Amino acid sequence: MARVIAVTNQKGGVGKTTTAINLAASFAAAEVPTLLVDCDPQANATSGLGFAKDPERISVYQVITNETGAEQALQLTALEQLWLLPSHKNLLGANLELVTDADRALRLRQALAPLRQRFHFIVLDCPPALDLLTLNALVAADSVLIPMQAEYFALEGISELLDTVERIRQELNPGLQIEGVVLAMFDERTNLAQQVAGELRNFFAEALCTTTIPRNIRLAEAPSHGKPVLLYDPRSRGAEAYIRLAKELMDRQSGKRTPPPTAQGAAGAAS
Q1: 0.85 exceeded by the pTM?
Q2: Higher pLDDT, 186 or 71
Q3: Rounded to the nearest 5°, which phi and psi values hold at 55?
Q4: pLDDT given at position 203
Q5: Taking 60 as the threshold, does the pLDDT of residue 125 lie above it?
Q6: Proportion of the chain above pLDDT 70, given as a percent
Q7: Greater confidence, 218 or 13?
Q8: CB under 8 Å to 113, separation ≥6 — which residues?
Q9: pLDDT digits (tens, 9 = 90+) for 130-162
């Protein structure tokens, strides 16, 4: 059964989509079947994997509104073991169209249920808002991965997200766990970053990922080329960091050490 990880933070600009794309790509580079689900109407994860805007392409919108099954919407990416369930801007309408439906929070979980036997990991890229789309993702997920920047405004917003996770756990998804908190766009040279990291470590303890994601120009450039950083520049610091993060999360799941995917292996997995 796939482990479904929702990558979410209601604060924008924290590296959420970058993390979703590159974490999913790193899982795939480790030769495990992985699905990335773009739950954001901005469709940045879709374009970040090289898929141009196409109103005719089946997307999460048709899946979540029960017009088609998730299997029909899958797209194979440039990485052999990575599939995408793409998004489109019309997904924004689902927030209004589903609001009166009794099962409005369960649509994504129901849609992904037939795919859980096919994939090892399913990564959900959530919108930067606590709306009905994010609610669907959190109800469908086994765990939540929270990317954060090492700044105090990020600390202020985290309590609202944790409250939301707790309410969903009590009412809709009792098995929902915190997969981890990962510091993204991290500059270890600054005192502020070290101070915020220390506070997060005190608060989250082992839930704070050991791996941090550095500020890296290759990470910033990769989406404009429609590639995860593992294919754009497999030897960059950003690529190496996401390989380590994937390995850390795989170790947590398996309870044992696993060999990390290599940069060469990532490039070789491209079709």
Answers
A1: yes
A2: 71
A3: -65, -15
A4: 83
A5: yes
A6: 93
A7: 218
A8: none
A9: 899 999 999 999 999 999 987 777 677 778 888
Residue 19 corresponds to which tokens in the numbers above?
Answer: 């993390």
Q: Does residue 122 contact residue 112 with C-beta atoms inside 8 Å?
A: yes
**HEC-encoded secondary structure of the chain:** CCEEEEECCCCCCCCHHHHHHHHHHHHHHCCCCEEEEECCCCCHHHHHCCCCCCCCCCCHHHHHCCCCCHHHHCEECCECCEEEECCCHHHHHHHHHCCCCCCCCCHHHHHHHHHCCCCCEEEEECCCCCCHHHHHHHHHCCEEEEEECCCHHHHHHHHHHHHHHHHHHHHCCCCCEEEEEEECCECCCCHHHHHHHHHHHHHHHHHECCCCCECCHHHHHHHHHCCCHHHHCCCCHHHHHHHHHHHHHHHHHHCCCCCCCCHHHHHHHEC
Model confidence pLDDT, tens digit, residues 199-212: 888 888 889 999 99
Average pLDDT, the chain: 90
Measured distance between the N- and C-terminal CA atoms of the chain, rounded to whole angstroms: 26
CB burial of 3-41 (b: ≥16 within 10 Å; e: otherwise) equals: bbbbbbbbbeebbbbbbbbbbbbbbbbbebbbbbbbbbb
Nearest-5° angle of CA 61, CA 18, CA 1? 60
